[in-house]
Design brief:
- There is one protein chain.
- The protein is mostly beta strands.
- It has one domain.
- Helix content is 10%, strand content 40%.
- It has 1 helix and 3 strands.
- The protein has a 3-stranded antiparallel β-sheet with strand order 1-2-3, with no helix packed on it.
- A hairpin with a 7-residue loop joins strand 2 and strand 3.
- It is flat.
Length: 67
């Protein structure tokens, strides 16, 4: 199960924002071919290098940490 680096936000009925991440999972009907699917992010997903772009945007839009 590998993250693709794509993410999206959805809003619950109560107004919470949920981070969705896209990952590739093997499909058991197609002989193990990888298929993308969207799922709610877990805490361990934030340490993946694919989501480092999201943290760069949260720090003012700079990916390199420059001034």
């Amino acid at each position: 199960m590998a993250l693709t680096g794509r993410f999206w936000f959805r809003k619950t009925w109560r107004g919470k924002l949920i981070l969705l991440v896209e990952d590739n999972r093997p499909s058991w009907l197609d002989g193990g071919q990888l298929k993308p699917r969207w799922r709610d992010a877990k805490l361990l997903d934030f340490v993946e290098t694919a989501l480092q772009r999201l943290f760069g945007l949260a720090r003012g839009g700079r990916l390199n940490g420059g001034h």
